[in-house]
Structures are given as structure tokens and as C-alpha cells.
């Protein structure tokens, strides 16, 4: 997570700005940088996760300019410092509603209300969490939400993918480039993914399936070592070992 000592949490009280940016991930902070350099005094509502999803990634090796890789938190902090250097302001606040019916645009947030001549919405996306014990603490330490971001770190490892839709199968198929095996856990006895993806996954010798099963806990101290499983039909519980990426 990006350090919060540079963020304001003051009450807005119908504060008016030229440019208001919702979201403080790479897109939001890039917009803030350009707007600040154009002397538009942008204000960024950082939300609850300054730095965006990039801050959840332990090491990023596919971002230009960092041949040795860079930590997700560190990269988020660099984005923040660069935007602030040119005059962008950031507040630790989250928007709850937006009125685009008239100018200036009006935004209601936790700390008050804002109005803006220009509104840039760069709220990004959030992964669907399992919300199980151990998940949050092991994120970036074996728990990942992006195969294309982190796939290389799973080279020669055993990987577990949770889900049975298009995203799960696409991620699983991608991970077979690196992992020794990919086990797809699905809470049903059949997949929801498209027919082509199903065929590719079922025909791939590196992919195995465990049906009618959910993950109930991510296990590990400082890295993921196993996941606890539960069969939704029989109630039987088991421990499935995993190999942490490094």
C-alpha cells in the first residue's frame, strides 16, 4: 500500500476544483501528472487503496524502466511523488455518488462534497476475493489475482486456480507456460466457461480438476504453503499443498 503521510483527509465542504480525478492507481496518477503539468491543479480522491491494484503485486518485472524489477508498493509511491511534484493534490477519500446532469459535476464522498469542471473516472477494477482466512495476509506471497502479471514467478511450481468460468480457464491455460501443474478447483461439477476454452483446458495435460470443492483457508506463515479444501457435497475437508513462487 502506498504510504499515506502525503495524503490529506480534510473535510471537503463543497470544495470546487478544475479537475477531479477518482482513483489513485497508475491511470489516475498519470492523469494527475498530465493535468498538473498543464497547471490545472488536479485533485485526486485516492479511495481506500492508493496505488491501485499495482500495490498488491510483490514484484513487477514487465514495467519499462526497471530492468531489475520494482515492488508494487514502491512503484505506486513513485507515481504519487511524481504527480505531487507538479502540484497534484491527493485526498484519502472515496466517492459514493456522482451527478453528471449539469456542470460543474458534483461528487459526493465520505468526507464531503466536491464540484469539478472536469471529472476523470479512473477507478480501475477489483478482483473477486475469496474472503477466506489467510487470503489478505498472503496476497503477494503466493496468493495472486493476475496470471499475466505474476505468471513468471510460478515457474516450475504447482499452482491452484479457483473458478470455472472463462477467466479461470484463461488464467489456468496461461499458467501452464510456467507451472509444472495447474489444478483448477470448482464448486460445481461442470464448467461455466465457453466450449472452446473448456476443450483446451480439458485437453491440456498440465491441467487437473477438482470438482464440487471450495477453498476455505489459505495456509502459511510468511508464504502460501497450502490451501484447505471442502467438498460441498460430502463436507469432507482436506489440505492441498502448493508451491509458493520463490
Task: Explain the overall architecture.
It is a single chain. 31% of the residues are buried. By secondary structure, this protein is of the alpha/beta class. The strands form four sheets. Strands 5-2-1-8-7-6 form a six-stranded mixed sheet, with helices on one face. A three-stranded parallel sheet has the order 9-10-11. It has helices at residues 26-37, 72-85, 147-150, 166-175, 195-203, and strands spanning 15-22, 43-45, 59-60, 70-71, 89-91, 95-99, 105-109, 112-121, 158-162, 181-185, 207-210, 213-219, 226-231, 237-241.
Task: List descriptors.
246 residues, alpha/beta, six-stranded mixed beta sheet, three-stranded parallel beta sheet, elongated, disordered N terminus
Rg calc: 21 Å
Mean pLDDT: 89
Major beta-sheet overview? 6 strands, mixed
Order of helices and strands: EHEEEHEEEEHEHEHEEEE
Number of helices: 5
Number of strands: 14
Low-confidence stretches: 1-6
Strand order of the largest sheet: 5-2-1-8-7-6
Amino acid at each position: 500500500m502506498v504510504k499515506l503521510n502525503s495524503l490529506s483527509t480534510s473535510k471537503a465542504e463543497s470544495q470546487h476544483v478544475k479537475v477531479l480525478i477518482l482513483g489513485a492507481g497508475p491511470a489516475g496518477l498519470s492523469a494527475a501528472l498530465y493535468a498538473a503539468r498543464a497547471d490545472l491543479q488536479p485533485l485526486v480522491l485516492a479511495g481506500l487503496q492508493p496505488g491501485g491494484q499495482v500495490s498488491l503485486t510483490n514484484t513487477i518485472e514487465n514495467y519499462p524502466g526497471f530492468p531489475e524489477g520494482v515492488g508494487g508498493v514502491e512503484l505506486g509511491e513513485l507515481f504519487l511523488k511524481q504527480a505531487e511534484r507538479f502540484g497534484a493534490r491527493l485526498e484519502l477519500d472515496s466517492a459514493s455518488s456522482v451527478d453528471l446532469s449539469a456542470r460543474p459535476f458534483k461528487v459526493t464522498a465520505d468526507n464531503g462534497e466536491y464540484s469539478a469542471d472536469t471529472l476523470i473516472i479512473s477507478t480501475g477494477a477489483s478482483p473477486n476475493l475469496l474472503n477466506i482466512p489467510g487470503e489478505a495476509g498472503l496476497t503477494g506471497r503466493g496468493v495472486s489475482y493476475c496470471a499475466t502479471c505474476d505468471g513468471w514467478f510460478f515457474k516450475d511450481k504447482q499452482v491452484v486456480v479457483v473458478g470455472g468460468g472463462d477467466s479461470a480457464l484463461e488464467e489456468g491455460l496461461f499458467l501452464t507456460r510456467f507451472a509444472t501443474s495447474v489444478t483448477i478447483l470448482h464448486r460445481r461439477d461442470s464448467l461455466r466457461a465457453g466450449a472452446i476454452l473448456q476443450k483446451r483446458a480439458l485437453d491440456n495435460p498440465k491441467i487437473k480438476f477438482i470438482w464440487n470443492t471450495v477453498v476455505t483457508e489459505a495456509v502459511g506463515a510468511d508464504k502460501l504453503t497450502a490451501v484447505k479444501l471442502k467438498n460441498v457435497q460430502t463436507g469432507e475437508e482436506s489440505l492441498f499443498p502448493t508451491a509458493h513462487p520463490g
